[in-house]
């Protein structure tokens, strides 16, 4: 492996190692020493690239949020009709809930951190705004907000349930939100 300034991937490896570590041991277990060892970089690289643990966590979680927003964009960007948009939301719930357990754990770790610390709330609020932006391409703002919350809730419930609900229930829940009541 290259050293010092000749290793352009070092920062990215540190961020990836941080997320891997959080997924396995939680935010509370993050330290410069543990992340450096996991990333295979000298301990001094940690302070060279990041001013402290908070900067490391914010950047790692920002990258993770970018990943999830890309999943939203990929699903919702293909929809051309209202029906396709509803089906894209269904697919999104099932993709996220059936995806890597790592992503579910990282999401919950970020939410826990955001519940405790305002600077991480800002990060989650920005993430939610970006997710809703993709939903608002197909739904009004109020419906997009409700769908965003539904996606989070159904994803979590499906991921944690030993017998997760099927696509029909997801479609019905989406239909109830997007269909105006009489």
**Overall shape:** elongated
CATH superfamily of the largest domain: Tetracycline Repressor, domain 2
Largest sheet: none
Count of DSSP strands: 0
| Number of DSSP helical runs | 9
Low-confidence stretches: none
Fraction in beta strands: under 5%
Helix and strand pattern: HHHHHHHHH
Q: What is the CATH class of the largest domain?
A: Mainly Alpha
How many domains make up the 3D coordinates?
A: 2
CATH architecture of the largest domain: Orthogonal Bundle
- Helix percentage range: over 70%
- Structural class computed from helices and strand pairing: mainly alpha
What's the CATH topology label of the largest domain? Tetracycline Repressor, domain 2
Average pLDDT, rounded to a whole number, is: 93
End-to-end C-alpha gap: 65 Å
The value of Rg in angstroms is 19 Å
Question: Can you offer a commentary on this structure?
Answer:
Keywords: DNA-binding, Transcription, Transcription regulation. Pfam families: TetR_C_31 (PF17940), TetR_N (PF00440). The protein is an all-alpha fold and 182 residues long. The chain has two domains: 50 residues, Homeodomain-like (Arc Repressor Mutant, subunit A); 126 residues, Tetracycline Repressor, domain 2, CATH 1.10.357.10. Helix content is 76%, strand content 0%. It is built from nine helices and no strands. The radius of gyration is 19 Å and the shape is elongated. The N and C termini lie far apart (65 Å). 29% of the residues are buried.
Keywords:
single chain, 182 residues, mainly alpha, Arc Repressor Mutant, subunit A, Tetracycline Repressor, domain 2, 9 helices, elongated, transcription, DNA-binding, Homeodomain-like_sf
């Amino acid at each position: 492996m290259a050293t010092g300034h000749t290793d352009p991937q070092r920062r990215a490896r540190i961020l990836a190692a941080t997320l891997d570590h959080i997924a396995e041991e939680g935010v509370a277990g993050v330290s410069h020493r543990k992340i450096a060892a996991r990333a295979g970089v000298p301990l001094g690289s940690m302070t060279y690239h990041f001013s402290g643990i908070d900067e490391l966590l914010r950047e790692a979680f920002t990258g993770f949020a970018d990943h999830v927003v890309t999943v939203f964009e990929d699903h919702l960007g293909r929809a051309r009709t209202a029906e396709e948009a509803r089906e894209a939301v269904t697919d999104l719930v099932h993709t996220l809930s059936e995806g890597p357990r790592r992503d579910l754990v990282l999401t919950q770790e970020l939410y826990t951190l955001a519940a405790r610390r305002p600077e991480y709330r800002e990060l989650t609020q920005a993430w939610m705004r970006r997710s809703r932006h993709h939903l608002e391409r197909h739904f009004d703002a109020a419906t997009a907000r409700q769908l965003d919350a539904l996606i989070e809730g159904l994803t979590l419930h499906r991921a944690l349930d030993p017998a997760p609900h099927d696509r029909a229930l997801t479609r019905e829940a989406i239909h109830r939100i997007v269909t105006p009541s009489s």
